[in-house]
From TrEMBL:
Gene3D superfamilies: Tetratricopeptide repeat domain. Keywords: Repeat, TPR repeat. SUPFAM superfamilies: TPR-like. TPR repeats lie at residues 86-119. It comes from the Eukaryota. This is Uncharacterized protein. SMART domains: TPR (SM00028). PANTHER family: TETRATRICOPEPTIDE REPEAT PROTEIN 6 (PTHR44858), UDP-N-ACETYLGLUCOSAMINE--PEPTIDE N-ACETYLGLUCOSAMINYLTRANSFERASE SPINDLY-RELATED (PTHR44858:SF1). It comes from Diversispora epigaea.
Length: 272
């Protein structure tokens, strides 16, 4: 089974929520115009501010309906007039990332980092984008920098664990997911991923505990969990248990999963 970090992709909404809680006064141009609007209600600047508040609303609306191309379009319009908007650069980069236009995303994030190198978000997102592009070592450099700025951001910790796993740095990946769980920011994927790491480290008992913990979440991907446990049972030579789990994978996905079927056939031969 595969480590599931790349399937649990960030959302632009997550980017926006993080800005609302962490970033204040990030667009000096807008703050200045907002102050002016209180004094001169009918000024051209006031009209411009209202226009671009509408553009921000359109960005939110496009994001809500999953229209990443529209998010890019409206972010570009906004940046044409407010080129130093750090948050908008990051939001557009997030949209580019979901469109798999990684080069464009990196350009936006390079600009954002150059503009505000002590801010967390662009470092984190650039690490995520590089991870999606399978440049795991480069991604680690950016994620490490993000975690230096904000040591308890669980999103960055999860992605660093993913990159460490891909680079076979299993001990560091385990430390990061342990911290995520300690900070109460875990979900079913966190435990399934930790089970994968523990399996790689031959901590089979701990891996079984992780899968059991994952099943306690209502939104668990059961096919993924059964598949992970099926392979784990196979490695532990619990052949009948492995067959049971891999059979459940086929039932859950309601399709012929060739990998699972192959494993089941091999296991039946072993038992016979």
């Amino acid at each position: 089974m595969k480590f599931t970090g790349e399937k649990k992709i960030y959302s632009i909404t997550w980017v926006r929520k993080l800005f609302s809680s962490k970033v204040q006064h990030e667009d000096p141009q807008i703050q200045q115009q907002a102050a002016t609007s209180n004094q001169v209600p009918q000024s051209p600047k006031n009209s411009l501010l209202r226009h671009f508040n509408i553009t921000k609303f359109k960005i939110d609306l496009a994001d809500h309906f999953g229209k990443e191309d529209k998010v890019v379009h409206y972010c570009t319009r906004y940046l044409d007039n407010f080129p130093n908007s750090y948050s908008t650069m990051c939001i557009r980069a997030g949209a580019y990332g979901k469109l798999k236009k990684y080069d464009e995303a990196i350009k936006d994030l390079d600009s954002a980092i150059q503009l505000r190198p002590r801010r967390f978000m662009a470092w984190c997102l650039r690490g995520v984008i590089k991870g999606l592009g399978k440049s795991y070592a480069e991604a680690l450099n950016d994620l490490n920098q993000a975690i230096v700025i904000d040591p308890i951001d669980c999103f960055a910790l999860k992605w660093r664990a993913f990159c460490c796993f891909k680079l076979k740095s299993y001990d560091q990946a385990l430390l990061d997911l342990n911290k995520v769980i300690l900070l109460s920011f875990s979900d079913a994927f966190t435990y399934i991923n930790r089970a994968e790491i523990n399996k790689k480290l031959n901590n089979h008992e701990e891996a079984h505990k992780d899968i059991a913990a994952a099943f306690k979440f209502e939104d668990i991907n059961k096919a993924l969990a059964y598949g992970t446990r099926g392979v784990l049972n196979l490695e532990c030579k619990n052949y009948q248990a492995s067959i049971n789990d891999l059979t459940k994978v086929i039932i859950k996905v309601k399709a012929f999963d060739l990998s699972s079927i192959q494993k089941i056939c091999n296991l039946i031969n072993l038992i016979i």
